[in-house]
Amino acid sequence: MVTAAAVGALCPGPIAHAEGDANSYDDIAINGTFIAFSDGVWAKTNDSLHEERSVTQVWTITSTCTTFEDCTGQVISDHGWTGDLVYLSGRWRVRHVIEDWEPCWDGTAWPGTQTFIFWQEYERDPNVYVGWDRTEGPSGACGFNRVLDIEMPFRLTRQS
User: Fold this and answer.
1) Which of 38, 74, 140, 155 is the most buried if burial means most Cβ atoms within 10 Å?
2) What is the CATH number of the domain that holds 62?
3) Rounded CA separation 43/154 (Å)
4) pLDDT tens, position by position, 53-67
5) What angle do CA 83, 84, 87 make, to 5 degrees?
């Protein structure tokens, strides 16, 4: 039989913060200027290795946290897009739509939704985050009932 004390020892609760400390969650929020790098050398198209063009962007990130698991913010990219930032289960997520992302044989094109998922690197370096950059087109685009998705390793590094 597992007791509540045993569960508490195995699964500690959230990090304790001082009552009334308005900045007590600043260690989770991320703010500043970052280099965002999507590594096309290791890209996968529909789960098969398929090299794509690597992309480097400069992101300006602002975020705030009201609890240790409720954080929101915004990313502004030097590539001309802005996306909402959300913190979920220890990972950050930002997404935006890329117009005319999937070109079709008839000259038309469909949008793709680009989603970045990233988390603090395992060494707990507060200046480096790793994750995935995934762009997905809609099923049925270009007359095919199949989603086109491209996923690349992603690295986000704070600028000093």
Assistant:
1) 38
2) 2.40.160
3) 10
4) 999 999 999 999 988
5) 130
